What we know:
Elements: H1 3-11, H2 13-16, H3 22-27, E1 36-42, H4 61-69, E2 71-77, H5 83-92, H6 96-99, E3 108-109, E4 115-116, H7 131-137, E5 141-146, E6 164-167, H8 173-190, E7 196-201, H9 213-221, H10 232-254, E8 261-267, H11 301-304, E9 305-311, E10 320-322, E11 326-327, H12 331-339, H13 355-359, E12 369-373, E13 382-387, E14 390-395, E15 401-405, H14 421-438, E16 444-445, E17 458-459
Parallel strand pairs: 1-7, 1-8, 2-10, 2-11, 5-6, 5-7
Antiparallel strand pairs: 2-9, 3-17, 4-16, 8-9, 12-13, 13-14, 14-15
Amino acid sequence: MNRRVFLKAVGMGAVSLTFPSRTARSAANNVHKKPNIVFILIDDMGWPDVSCYGSEFHETPNIDRLVSQGMKFTDAYAACPVCSPTRASIMAGQYPARVGITDFIPGHWRPYEKLVVPDNRLQLPLESVTIGEVFKEQDYSTCYIGKWHLGGDGFSPDKQGFDKVVLSVKNQNDKQVSGFTDDAINFIQEKKQEPYFLYLSHHTVHIKLEAPEELVEKYRSKPKPATGVNNPTYAAMVEHLDTNVGRILRKLDDLNLAEQTIVIFFSDNGGLHQAYGGYTGEREIVSTNAPLREEKGTLYEGGIRVPLIVRWPGVVNAGTTCSEPVSSVDFYPTFLQILGAGGDSSQALDGENILPLLKQTATLKRDAIYWHYPHYHHSRPAGAIREGDYKLIEFFDDGQFELYNLKRDIGEKNNLAETMPAKAADLQQKLANWRKSVGAKMPTPNPDYDPARSNEWKPRPRR
């Protein structure tokens, strides 16, 4: 028995005994019918990009409708400020530092910076038991559509528990959104009589900036709010996405599946402020994450706090809001609980089951959530911890700490590290202990450090 089969046998044993077979369920008139799940993941959507999270320029009536029918999380976080690590955290239920994917794949490199950043794993390990495999073991039909970014040949979603896979060929955001939605609707139609797990992973609103011209013109002509970036093409991308989210919701309504389908809307990291290199509109200002600080690629709130909406009729009360911090590592244990597995698995899980929050029956027991981003991007290599209202960021190049009270200072403007040194030291020690517990790799001093060339970028060498 190879390692992968062994992990399935051990890790999924408790899960596969939880429910009777599909035939037995049918004989019981589906009294315990399992819910369908539609998981919609957006690329680079910032926390305030949709109107229900504060945008005064973008129009998102369908996503707003989802909020009115479900729960909006105000303090939801991606496990990393870039895409691949967060996607790995969702798939495996583990912090990126534990998986070994801590930067986007393959990552980039500054060969003359002060620190040499650690190697970045180039694929999600096949040994990881993914959520796709968990659902497949439970007789769910599984489908992955869109952006994967967790490995190429031999490591694609069909090797990770997904029966049907539709991946992109070209980066055409406006056409892909509609095309991926067509594929999703076809899958829902095809599997309407059985439980299914649909993972719809859009490329939008990631640059390049691209949207239907009639929508772009609409926003060019629309009066602009006094504050904000208000980029017409970006706004059109957001509305085009919203329209296609609405198509999914209407399909569920038309097939009378809405009442038995959990719909989750999430982003893989915070929004990008400015386009960099290689695209039409190079250096164009794209969006703002205000009132949050900074953007994708940083551990400030603008890089990691993201929209999360969950609609689950009969379980989640409509129009509710949750302000407790949650993370992308929480989806996996929550799905296990929904399936009745009680969190049993042979692989370490770093998240918490958030069903008590969804049902508004209890709070979570954990003390803190963590980040490890030891790479240069739009900031310096750093780690972070949030415990309650307090968040500490530790920069690895100079050991600097920044401490913020997010309840009082959501924009992270008032660094409390000097006025609250005991609190800063306590959080830094907890962050260091966590890094040790998950085997986080740290950057090392660079013998080729050259301040005059430190901002040069090169492709990351593959070892």
